[in-house]
Amino acid sequence: MASIARTIRPFARVATSSSRSLRPAFSRTAPQIRCLTATLPRRDVDISEIPPTPISHLSETEMLMADSVSKFAQEVILPKARDMDEAETMDPVVIEQLFEQGLMGIEIPEEYGGSGMNFTSAIIAIEELARVDPSVSVMCDVHNTLVNTAIIKWGSERLKKEFLPKLATNTIGSFCLSEPISGSDAFALATKATRTETGYKINGGKMWITNAMEANFFIVFANLDPSKKYKGITAFIVEKGTPGFTISKKEKKLGIKASSTCVINFDDVEIPKENLLGNEFEGYKYAIGLLNEGRIGIAAQMTGLALGAFENAAGYVWNDRKQFGQLVGEFQGMQHQFAQAWVEIQAARALVYNAARKKEAGEDFVMDAAMAKLYSSQVAGKVSGQAVEWMGGMGFVREGLAEKYFRDSKIGAIYEGTSNIQLTTIAKHLQKIYTR
């Protein structure tokens, strides 16, 4: 299979040079509130005079990305999805192919070996992968939206030259923020860093770390000065194999079982001063910005999951499953459920793509990302649960993928900010708007 990145890259260059016609218009009449994000505001494109386009409008590059990733997922991932779930392990061939197809370096500039595409292209890839296997999707999501973005934005030129080519071609990255007492309250982390003559020493532990088993590259958040509380948090790069770095436990989970989730310990882990990411005491800013963007990726994972669950069930009830002498899909009561589910899926997708476009335009997207993640996780849980019922016994057994979609959906309401955290974020933004 030809590399997706190599196939699409020429179209990406053309799209960049003619991007004016692809940009939706945003009002400039109201004051713009700058959000805390890893994305710079757009200065090269004036979007104020561009006629509005549908949120779901895709450029030629983005349409090619959707079609190519869909084909790749059907041909390479789908035949392995059930076995990977049962074994609770990511197939090395899938990982190899993700790199070969350029899906692990979507936003990494071409000069560093990446695909050099836009954020929405990454969101499209994440959604298309999740239609087949959310476990593969989240591996790609965390690697692209959290790890790669952090290095592109805050890495020194030395770090970019050393690690971006690896992250684009053969090295999986992991994002180490959560701890046993520091989940939703991310800034309560207890992992500590101290300065040494040659760099830094890290002690502590992390929990719920995605990609940990497969990764060789870790972005680790530790407090360099606890007296500053959360403002002492600093980000570092740690490579697997560094003395004192250990993976002590791989979690057994309800869903996304092929995606590794591990406990990591740091026992006097010494790293060189060059492995400082960005500046000391600014890690909390990086974490906020990255998680705000990462929530759009998780939302895309959930809309992709909902689409996959719906399509899997619809194909069965409209073609195979019969009751009382007719296809189940022909009963009006069932058709109304299908219609309602489809409306909710498309509404969730509109939130996801709107948040992605606003991020690319440099607009304040924080509330949009929270709304997208909240609602898409709700829709994914609801639709995947209904899909099991629509398929009857075939939805309940582990022969097909229906019950897997249902189990996989639950994590959407938990990681990268629980649903309650998203509601709190939305409410705080609304309070700012309506407080006199």
What is the topology?
Elements: H1 4-17, H2 60-87, H3 92-100, H4 119-130, H5 134-154, H6 157-169, E1 173-176, E2 192-195, E3 199-210, E4 217-223, E5 233-239, E6 245-250, E7 261-272, E8 276-277, H7 283-317, E9 322-323, E10 326-327, H8 332-360, H9 366-390, H10 393-396, H11 402-409, H12 419-434
Parallel strand pairs: 1-4
Antiparallel strand pairs: 2-3, 3-7, 4-5, 5-8, 6-7, 9-10
Strand order of the largest sheet: 1-4-5-8
- The number of domains: 3
Looking at the structure, what is the overall shape? globular
Enter the CATH topology name of the largest domain: Butyryl-CoA Dehydrogenase, subunit A, domain 3
Task: Report on the biggest sheet.
Answer: 4 strands, mixed
Record field, number of beta strands: 10
Radius of gyration: 22 Å
Catalogue the unreliable spans.
16-43
Beta-strand content = 5-15%
Q: Mind telling me which CATH architecture of the largest domain this is?
A: Up-down Bundle
The structure class reads alpha+beta
Report how far the terminal alpha carbons are from each other. 59 Å
Helix and strand pattern: HHHHHHEEEEEEEEHEEHHHHH
* Helix percentage: 40-55%
The DSSP helix count reads 12
The CATH homologous superfamily of the largest domain is named Butyryl-CoA Dehydrogenase, subunit A, domain 3
